[in-house]
Specification:
The complex is a heterodimer of chains A (about 190) and B (about 210).
Chain A (H helix, E strand, L loop, with lengths): L1 H23 L3 H20 L5 H17 L10 H22 L11 H7 L6 H12 L3 H12 L4 H8 L3 H18 L2
Chain B lengths: L2 H14 L9 H24 L5 H4 L3 H24 L12 H21 L11 H22 L5 H23 L5 H26 L3
Helix pairs in contact in B: 2-4, 2-6, 2-7, 4-5, 4-7, 6-7, 6-8, 7-8
Classes of the chains: A mainly alpha (about 190), B mainly alpha (about 210).
């Protein structure tokens, strides 16, 4: 099985290389075919390693634009796949850096439609979030805040402790107990 | 983004395609910069700063020759690494970046060992012409190598900034050593090395913006 897979991979790489060389000479059909094959390949490569499948689409778009901008840097004496994978890796890191530096991962409230769309695997289960919200609303204010920061908004225990003026261990214990309580409440 | 939008993007990109001029081999791209920078530095030393009067004596000083050779090797290898970094996958030869980094660290270690032995005496810490001369020596080569780097498509902007800084800084350092007569290590560290390290640090911090594509 393995040798045939690697043969298929090699022949695919050879075809991409040929299309890339033709694209550099201005062949629009070869270029369109190349991008058409690259898009699902890149998306499938990315999707498994990202928290949100939509990001894979966004990064794929950025990679295709980057391939377009940097086409002149591809050298026909080199294989095509490492060249394109370097761009994929660069754009993925860039995307994630921007996302986390804007603290986008800490700005999604539970009732935000975008948050639900991107974090609830099956939107039909969104009702379960309502149950969780109800259970949370019954908790004391401070306990609820700790749980929300740690388990929902993605703060680290240290960050939450600083924000709430508590010790790190107290934050961890509180989050753990709340989780236990919620599990029992939602059984 | 839906598959339909992706298809539209591909259609647009294919529609915009024009024949492109392939980037030449990295060595061919960087060779003119190296040649012109060396000529420029020698010309500035000859016409503007003037070579140090004891230069012929210094050519028989093994420490001076070692110092200049090490700086030259670091500068040239960093310039070559810069050209490799212009290609997204660095042509599969990322080890090239290790050469200038190792040489630079060797150079810095050697300078600090000298500093520890000879002492960094404050008496030598006076403002003089070297800072200004350093700027004259590196400003144009730095602008040109940054322009060349931006013509490529680096996927490692910070490393690119560091390579640019080592290339320009090392050649600028040689220019200063050929014109400044002060061999004192404290003077060398503060006026010949530190400004280039600081400039390199600034380029490194701004690298993602400078080399964005």
């Amino acid at each position: 099985m393995k040798p045939s897979n690697s043969n298929a991979k090699a022949s695919k790489s050879a075809i991409w290389k040929e299309w890339a060389i033709k694209a550099q000479d201005g062949d629009k059909r070869a270029y369109s075919a190349l991008l058409g094959e690259l898009a699902p390949f890149i998306r499938n490569y990315l999707v498994g390693g990202l928290a949100n499948p939509d990001w894979a689409e966004d990064i794929t778009q950025e990679v295709l634009i980057s391939v377009h901008k940097s086409l002149a840097t591809y050298s026909p004496d080199r294989p095509f796949r490492p060249w394109v994978m370097a761009i994929v890796s660069f754009r993925r890191t860039d995307f994630l850096r921007k996302h986390y530096s804007s603290r986008g991962n800490k700005q999604s409230p539970l009732d935000d439609a975008d948050f639900l769309r991107t974090h609830v695997t099956n939107p039909a289960h969104a009702g379960e979030y309502k149950d969780i919200e109800e259970a949370l609303s019954e908790l004391p204010e401070k306990q609820r805040k700790v749980f929300q920061m740690i388990k929902i908004e993605g703060y680290t225990a240290k960050e939450a402790a600083t924000e709430l003026d508590m010790s790190v261990s107290a934050v961890k214990v509180s989050a753990h107990r709340t989780m236990k309580k919620l599990k029992e409440r939602l059984k | 983004m839906s598959t339909g939008q992706l298809d539209k993007l591909i259609e647009n990109l294919a529609g915009e395609l024009e024949p492109v001029k392939r980037l030449r081999h990295p060595l061919l791209r960087i060779a003119p910069w190296i040649a012109l920078t060396v000529l420029y530095i020698l010309a500035v030393d000859y016409f503007y700063l003037e070579f140090r009067p004891d230069l012929s004596d210094k050519t028989s000083d093994p420490i001076f020759i070692f110092e200049i050779s090490l700086a030259l090797a670091a500068g040239l290898s960093a310039a070559i690494a810069t050209a490799w970094l212009c290609v997204p996958d660095a042509r599969g030869q990322s080890w090239i970046m290790a050469v200038p980094i190792t040489l630079s660290l060797t150079f810095l270690s050697w300078s600090f060992i000298r500093g520890a032995n000879e002492g960094l005496e404050p008496a030598h810490m006076h403002l003089n012409h070297c800072f200004h001369d350093g700027i004259v020596l590196i400003a144009i080569p730095a602008a040109v190598i940054m322009f060349l780097s931006r013509c490529g498509a680096t996927t490692r902007p910070v490393l690119m900034g560091i390579m640019n800084a080592i290339a320009v800084g090392a050649l600028g350092y040689i220019g200063l050593r050929l014109s400044c007569q002060m061999d004192n290590i404290a003077h060398g560290c503060f006026y010949h090395i530190a400004p280039f390290i600081l400039a390199g640090g600034v380029v490194g911090l701004l690298a993602r913006r400078i080399y964005r594509w």
